[in-house]
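Writing this down once: the sequence line spells out the residues, with the fold written below as integer tokens. I am pasting one below:
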Amino acid sequence: MREPVSGTTWIDCGPDWGRQMEDAGFRSVDRMLITHAHYDHIGGLPEWYDACRWTDKEGLTYCPAEVIPEITARFPWVASRLRFIPMEESLVLGKWVVRCFRVHHGRNGYSYAFEFIHSVNGYRWIYCSDAIDLTEEQQRPFYGADLVILGTSFVKEPYPIHTRSIYDVEEAIELFERWKPGRMVLTHLSHDIDVNKKDVLPEGVQFAVTGMSITLCD
């Protein structure tokens, strides 16, 4: 699938999407990539639907095929303005080749990660917001990536792994040391994490903060 070079691509659409758009200074987005159908990742789709309806636009929404019926079962009316496109093959966005792959989300089932590869210089980064206990096969794309954005909810979660749904910070650091990416940014943070305590992280790992901007490559 090939898309125009221009425009804004947004990953996931949580219930605070409207405020996020205001904070980012955006009036609209051209397309969205959706990782999975949990409310904290799709709760803003009705608002995007309304924005598309009032501006007479069609919202391009790229999802893994199994995610689409879960979304439309919750919000059946949004399909009249949001066009859901199954990501059955790589998506080309300008100079970026984008693919998704399925990952374990622990007790919460499954999610998808997105891998972006620059077609000119080979810069490669991965967005994986909700995952835990990944198999070696699922981990393979993370090795040697230039950037990994990974979800972590707690510094150290004290519960059995089979009851959990997302990595903690200590586990993320272990993965950083194993995967050896150029950089890792931790997102999906809970109240347990103080982003000002940067000394708990090794060099190359940092907490995401509101309004953060990352330059991917030249």
Observations:
- The chain has six helices and twelve strands.
- The helical segments are 17-24, 39-42, 45-55, 68-74, 136-139, 169-179.
